[in-house]
Amino acid sequence: MSVYDDFSGCSWIGVPAELYKGQTWDGRLRTQTAYFRRAFQLNEPGGPFILHISAATRYRLYVNGVSLLSGPCKGDRFRHFYETIDVSQYLARGDNLIAVKVVAYPPYDVADEHADGIGPQFIWGSASGPCLLVGGPDVGTGQTDWRVCLDDAIEWKTPNLSFWMGGMEVVDGARLPRGWADSPTPGGVWASADVRWSIHPNGTGGIMPFPLLPRPIPLLYEQPAAWIGEKVLQSDDVLSFSFANGPAVIPPHTRMAVELDAGVLTTAYVSLPMSGGQGAEVTLRYAECYSDGTYAGKGDRCDAVHYRLHGHQDIYRPSGGTETYTPFWFRTMRFLRVEVQTAQEPLTLEMPMLVETGYPLVVQTTFHSSDPALNTLWEISKRTLQRCMHETYEDCPYYEQLQYTMDTRLQMLFTYAVSGDTRMALRTIDDYHASILPEGILQSRYPCQASQVIPVFALHWIFMLEDYYLETGDISVPRRYRPTIDNVLDWYARHIDHTGLVGQTEHWQFTDWVEDWEGRYGMSAASQAGPSVSNNLTYVLALGSAARLNRLTGRNDAACAYEADARAILANVEKRCWDATTGLYREGPGIDEYTQHAQVLAVLTGLAADPKALMGKALAEPGLHQCSFPWMFYFLRALERAGMYERASVFYDRLIHFVKLNATTIPERHYQTRSECHAWGAFPLYEFPHTLLGVQPGSPGWGEILIRPFFGIATDCAGTVATPIGQVEVAWEQKGDHIALRGRSPESIPCVIALPGGRRVNLPRGGAFTESLPM
C-alpha cells in the first residue's frame, strides 16, 4: 500500500472565500481555526473502518462526539505526516458524524516572534489557512460533501517568556459554533469546503503542497489523570473556592480562585465543565511550581505561602449555557490555578478533568536499592524523560517543546537503557539529516520553522548514529547518512585556522549553561576569541565515530582520513593549550580560561597522559568553570574511564538537592532553573543500568552481553535491564567483607562478566550466575 492508496481519489479541502467576508486583515497572517464535518449513513456497522487523516497545520479528530486523536505528527516542508486509525468502535447504525477541528499556523516569517497570532516554532506553518485531508470509505475529502465553519471566537496570545510555544487562547464562548462535533444542527455559519489540491504528483516531477508520509512513530497515549488536592490561597484580594464538596458556585460580581495540585509535573489536556455565568471570565493558569515569577526565585516547589503561581494561561468567557472548555493543545503543569471573575450571573464550575498524554514509552528496566535517594532519582528521571517525549524528543515540555541535538542524543541513550525502543530514535536521526543547510551544517533544533545553528550540536548527531548502530547492529542506518556525516565534518575542516584548530565560527558557539558564562549565553571566552578546546575535542570525538562508521561500511580511505584529522587536532591542542604549570588544559590558545569541560574531553579523547590526575584536578581545582546538567553524562564517562567512578556521587547529590525541594522532575540546570523538566539531566536512567548494574552491549546489536557492575555509590542494588535480545537480571549487595553478585542473562546469548581485578567470567550460552567477591 502507498500513500496514494490510502487517499485514493482524495484531495485537500479548505475554507471557501465566502466565509472570510467581513473579516478585517492587517496584511499579516494570523493563526486561524476552522471546524470540518462529514455526516454519513452506515447501514450495518461491523469490521474495521479505517481513517487516514492529516491537516494543515494541526487537527483534533472527533467521531460521533468522542474526542480521539491529535495530529499530524510534527514534520517539515518536505515531510508532512498523516495518521491512520480504526474508528469502527465509535460508529453506530444509521447517522454518523466525523468532525475535525483544524488550527492553521502561519509561516514563521509573517510576524516578529513575540507577536500575537503566531504559531509554535515546532510546527511548520503555511499560508494555506485551515486545510484537511481524510481518506476512508464514503468520507474522503474532495470526493464527498464536507462542510466547514470558520471560527471567530478564539484569539491567540503569545505567553510571556515563551514565544516558542505560539499562542495561548482567549475564547469568547458565545461565538463558538455549538454542537459542531456532535449535533446534526450545529450553530455557526457553514459552507461546503473548497477542494484545494490533489495529493498526486503532477507527472513532471513537481512536488505538491504537504508531501505525505505515514506517521513514523506510534500514536501518543491519552489516559485520565487526577488531582491529588487543592491549595488554600494566601491572598487578601481573591477569595478561595473549593471542589471538595462537588461543583463550585461562584456568586455574581465576585472574584474567586482555587489552585489544584496534580502531584507531579504532567503533560495533559485540560477540560473545564461549567454552566451559567454569562459575562464572566475564567482564567486557567498552568505552572510547573510555585515561584516569585523569575527563574532564580524558586525554593520548595510546593511552597504556596512564600510564592505564587506564575505561568502560561488560557482565558475563557462563558456563553451562559452548559459547556466544557478544552484548550486545543495539551498543557504542561504541576499546578493549575482556576480564577473566576463573574458578572451579573453566578457561574457553576465542575472539577477540571485531566487527560495525560505522551509518547507510549514502555519502561521495562527496573532498579531498586536500599538507598531511598537512588530509588527517588530513578523515578524522577523516568518521569522527566517521559514528559520530554511526545511527537519528538523535547528540550522541555513547558517553554519550547523543541528537539535540540545535544539534549536528544542523551534522551535517545536513556530511552535505549530503559526500554530498548528505537522508533523515536530513528525518526530523530532522519529529522536532523533533513535539517541540513546549504553550507553543510545541521540545524541545532528540528523540526523548527525558525532556523538555528549551534555548530557543535551537529557533532552530537554523529554520536547518535554510532549509538544507534551499537544498540541495534543495523549498519544500514549509518550507511544511509554517510554523505551527511561528510558534510558536517567538511564544514568543520573548512573552519580550521592558522593554529591548526577549528577557530571562531559563525552561529551560536554554545558549550554549556555555565553559571559564569550566563551573560554570554553559554559561550566560553575562548570560543568568542578563536579556537575552543571543548569544541575542538568534541570534533575529535566525532571524527572518531565517523571513522569507525566509515570503516564498518567499507570506506577505509575515509576512515583513515578522519583519523588523521583527529590526530592533527589533538597534537595542536596539546601544543597550544596544555598548561604545565597548572596541570590543566586551557579552554583556548593563550586564553587564561579553564573549564571542567576541556579536562573531561581530554580524557575521553585519549589526549590526557594521566586521566586520573586530570580528573582529580577537574573535581578539586578552584576556579574551573563547572559543567552543568547536560555535561554530567560526559563527566561521568570520563570518571569511568579514569577509574574514579566512586566520585560520581557529587553529581547525584546535585539532583537530590532538587528532590529535597519537592521537585518531581529534573530541571534544566542547577542554577536559575527556567524549566523544571529537562531530560538531558536524567542521567541516572543510563548510569544505574549501565554502571551500577553494569549491563552493556558487548558487541553491536547485543550479540554479546557485557556485565561490569560498579560496587560503590550504594551498598546494594538490583534490577532488570531491557535489551533488544531479552531481559538481563543483576543484583548485588555488600555482606560483611564481601560482595554477593547474582543474576541471569538471556539463554543462548554469550555473556561476559567483568569483575574487579581483571577477572572475567565467561558464559558462552548465557544463563544464571552467582559470584562472591572480596571487598
Quick rundown:
With 775 residues, the protein is an alpha+beta fold. Strands 10, 11, 15, 16, 17, 18, 19, 20, 23, 24, 25, 26 and 27 form a 13-stranded mixed sheet that branches. Strands 13-1-8-3-6-14 form a six-stranded mixed sheet, with no helix packed on it.
What does this structure look like?
- By secondary structure, the chain is of the alpha+beta class.
- The chain has 4 domains: 3-164 and 175-215, Jelly Rolls (Sandwich), CATH 2.60.120; 222-358, Jelly Rolls, CATH 2.60.120.260; 366-692, Glycosyltransferase (Alpha/alpha barrel); 705-774, Maltose phosphorylase, domain 3 (Sandwich).
- Helices cover 23% and strands 27% of the residues.
- A hairpin with a 2-residue loop joins strand 34 (726-735) and strand 35 (738-745).
- The model has no long low-confidence stretch (mean pLDDT 95).
Secondary structure topology:
Layout: H1 3-6, E1 11-14, E2 32-42, E3 50-56, E4 58-63, E5 66-71, E6 80-86, E7 94-104, E8 131-135, E9 147-150, E10 154-157, E11 168-172, E12 190-192, E13 194-198, E14 212-214, E15 221-225, E16 229-231, E17 239-240, E18 248-250, E19 255-276, E20 281-287, E21 290-291, E22 308-309, E23 312-317, E24 322-325, E25 331-341, E26 347-349, E27 353-358, E28 366-368, H2 372-387, H3 405-419, H4 423-434, H5 455-472, H6 476-480, H7 482-493, H8 525-529, H9 533-552, H10 556-577, E29 578-579, E30 584-585, H11 596-604, H12 611-620, H13 632-641, H14 649-660, H15 684-692, E31 695-697, E32 705-707, E33 716-723, E34 726-735, E35 738-745, E36 751-754, E37 760-763, E38 767-774
Parallel strand pairs: 6-14, 11-23, 17-19, 32-36
Antiparallel strand pairs: 1-8, 1-13, 2-7, 2-9, 3-6, 3-8, 4-5, 4-7, 9-12, 10-11, 15-27, 16-19, 18-26, 19-24, 19-25, 19-26, 19-27, 20-23, 20-25, 21-22, 28-33, 29-30, 31-32, 33-34, 34-35, 35-38, 36-37
Helix pairs in contact: 2-14, 3-5, 3-15, 4-5, 5-9, 7-9, 9-10, 9-11, 11-12, 11-13
